Known about the structure:
By secondary structure, the chain is mainly α. It contains ten helices and no strands.
Amino acid sequence: MSNAPLMPKATAVWLVDNTALSFDQVADFCKMHPLEVRAIADGDAAQGIKGSDPIASGQLTREEIARGEADPNYRLKLLEPKTRLPEPKRKKGPRYTPVSRRHERPSAILWLVRNHPELKDAQIMRLVGTTKTTIASIRDRTHWNTAALTPMDPVTLGLCSQIDLDFEVQRAAKEKPAAAAYGGATLLPASETTRKSEDEETESAPSSRSSEEFDDAAVFAKLKQLGGKRDHDEDDED
């Protein structure tokens, strides 16, 4: 399925309240994350949204819903719309946050800063629709309401979708340089070890030569002493 219903969250509210479809089936049909659908079922999200009947709007049939309820692995198929609407272009800049949710943004920012420190300020701005000044004050704990802030998941608060959060986290992980891992000690190249042994041989050569010369001189001196002693002994016998 490539197209989503016209009002995905309102459609998800109706499907959760009026059908026995699984969270995965509703999430796949409405192009949402299963955790968002679970939050709707638990009453943690979409509390003020009125459900939209996809059967009345011509997006689903009762037979399609019954087929999905009978088989949890079945994925609902959206009916082809009679009119084609252009896809809305996503505007650049901070996300718009409803007035009723704006007081919850600092808690969401604190949750993002603690649980995903790899996110940049621009990414947090796109997720919850805030400013760099607010993010900096929460990072530095200089926000006027720091003592009363409690970290809260922005997905649960309805400030962003789980898909957008996962996308930004994966993007930040790719941009973060990988730390070089220690691979253990390695052997020196043969060129260095061979050169070192050759240098040691050249340094030890003069000393060995001098020792040889010293040994020859000592031998000759010993012979002279022996020869002189023999001559002296012969004179004493005479």
